[in-house]
Amino acid sequence: MTKSEIARPIKVRQLPGAPVIIDASEAEREALARRFGITSIEKLHAEITLDKESKAIVATGRLSARITQNCAISGEDFAVEVDEPLMFRFVEEGSLAAPVEEDDEIEIELSPDDCDEIEYSGDSFDLGEAVAQSLGLAIDPYAEGPGADEARRKAGITSDEEQAPSGPLAEALAALKKD
């Protein structure tokens, strides 16, 4: 297992009674920004409650972050606020269902209430890495900043609604619409 930029190991036997607060340091935020290919992470905060449930540890809480990323259209930096609910189940290694063979394809539908199951081995699990992965999933790689429309206009890119169809087929369709 690779070392997480924001490691927060939690001992299984001594689960904290109070919520776990994760506030990433400047160095951790810089490392995560490099990992996720964004300009910067100005704030990363998570508050998580841990509960023992049968053979799993259920973590629920909230992630909030302020990031700066590039606009997918203009390439300019813009600020984004992230506010995501968190829900994970940490289970002992080997306790997840066996992977389905390709020949036995089964479709599983997940509801929004289903949570990520993360295996751990030994006597602890890394809550910080789970939070980091959640942040990575919350980042929209195709996010458009405030200058996206202007960049499209300058490049001569128009939307389908703005583009009038032309040619013989378009003329024939237009004539049919008139009738």
Outline the structure in words.
Strand 4 (56-70) and strand 5 (77-92) form a beta hairpin. The chain is 23% helix and 34% strand. By secondary structure, the chain is an alpha+beta fold. It is elongated, with a radius of gyration of 23 Å. It comes from Altererythrobacter epoxidivorans.
| Count of DSSP strands | 7
Domain count, please report it: 1
The major pleated sheet works out as: 5 strands, mixed
Helical content, roughly? Answer: 10-25%
**SSE string, helices as H and strands as E:** EEHEEEEEHHH
Strand arrangement in the largest pleated sheet? 2-3-4-5-6
Q: Distance N terminus to C terminus? A: 68 Å
Radius of gyration: 23 Å
Portion in beta strands: 25-35%
What is the mean predicted local confidence, pLDDT?
85
Number of helix segments?
Answer: 4
Shape: elongated
Which stretches of 5+ consecutive residues score pLDDT under 50? none
Region (Disordered): 142-179
Protein name: DNA-binding protein
InterPro entries: YceD (IPR003772)
Organism: Altererythrobacter epoxidivorans
